[in-house]
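Supplementary material to the annual report.
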Amino acid sequence: SQTIHQWPATLVQPVGSPLSLECTVEGTSNPNLYWYRQAAGRGLQLLFYSVGIGQISSEVPQNLSASRPQDRQFILSSKKLLLSDSGFYLCACGTGGGEQYFGPGTRLTVT
Amino acid sequence: GESVGLHLPTLSVQEGDNSIINCAYSNSASDYFIWYKQESGKGPQFIIDIRSNMDKRQGQRVTVLLNKTVKHLSLQIAATQPGDSAVYFCAENGSGGSNYKLTFGKGTLLTVNP
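Predicted assembly:
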């Protein structure tokens, strides 16, 4: 079964600073990869998904971007963080069957 | 950890009772559904899934029921334990049945009283 790693676990960044969150997956090949954001007490908002290396689909216009440099690596980035970027960021891995499995998440606080 | 505040529907049960968490979905084209459990500060954990060619599926202490006529999904937890306290989300493969993306419900906070 797959294992999803995310780091860092917690991050505090000032407004206007850059961001790089990393997600790596073990135990599977050619997965679909996803980035979600979850605000406190809220549901999950899909930000990006990728069905293969270099293939990124954006769901929500914003100042975030995603990249997939390797089959099992997914990176979420920003050049300049906004206060509204604070939240709990979750990486997920899926197969063609539809199910998705989540990583432990990164808590981002923009100050 | 993650704060699950007042925006979520809540269900409070006594330890040992059965719990039923409900979810309504909107896309009649969805043919795959998942229940997730999310504990405070952690990522959602896959509990059980069901495809639209089934009405019921059972796991360990959990049962998912699907009523396609009224687009309703429920999760039943038998003999609820304090460790079951968490937020529970349902998800459907919306977008016309796409297997790439899931649409998540808002979640229900389950509190188990000892």
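The radius of gyration of chain A is 13 Å.
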